[in-house]
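re: ur question from earlier - yeah i can do the single chain one, its not a big deal. heres the input i used so u can compare w yours
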Amino acid sequence: MRTFFDCFTPLFQYLRTWTAIGLLVWVVTWSFPAQAASRIDPQLEQQVLQIIREHPEAIIESVQAYQQQQQQKVKQEQQGFLQDLKTNPQSVIGQSPTTGSTKSKTLLIEFSDFQCPYCAEAHKTLKELLGKYPDKIKLVYKNLPLISIHAEALPAATAAWAAHQQGKFWEYHDALFTNQKQLGQALYLDIAKKLNLDLGKFKRDLTLANPAITKDIQLAEKLAVSGTPFFVINSPSFSGVVQLADIENILASAK
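and the output i got, formated as tokens:
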């Protein structure tokens, strides 16, 4: 059975090499007065530069050792997550929205961003899968708004969380993806009205969403999730990171 770790080994090797190079470059540029946050002792600066020139391998080895420690830490987090997914799935689900079968042995965790175009495409595929395998899958939604590139990702996640407090997350979720090009405050309120939400409660809950969304983001960071959509599945035949294209095969083979 493939696991979480098989999918990440090449990524860790790549990151380790480039982090080592990147840190070496950073040390060199940091040592120059124009790049430093404050002036440093010129003699110390020359000593640092001399060490770098004579022993660059020492810095690279130190960075590699640090990366190995970080890699091991992430593996431990991943291993613990998968173990919880098998033995105590409710601890992983928490208060996150779920849909699909309540008795299924297959649990699919999705990390998603409402402004991500790839997530919108994945949404269509997941809808088809849930319709085709209504008794074989339970889908859990986790927020991973890519704030640095998607200005409306967090506001949209906040609005969906507020809708979740009135039992309308999935309807709101579908409307956000359907109208992804119109994301904005006007749309969020319009969807709430169309779903007959209590608007007063909806607006109050908008101010309370941050802890839940932050918790999802922190989980994604622990698992080294680098983009969206991102899926983790636990089924009788597979446990770990999965590509969307492979989910149907896993569902078809699930007993």
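The first strand starts at residue 98 and ends at 100. not sure if urs matches, ping me
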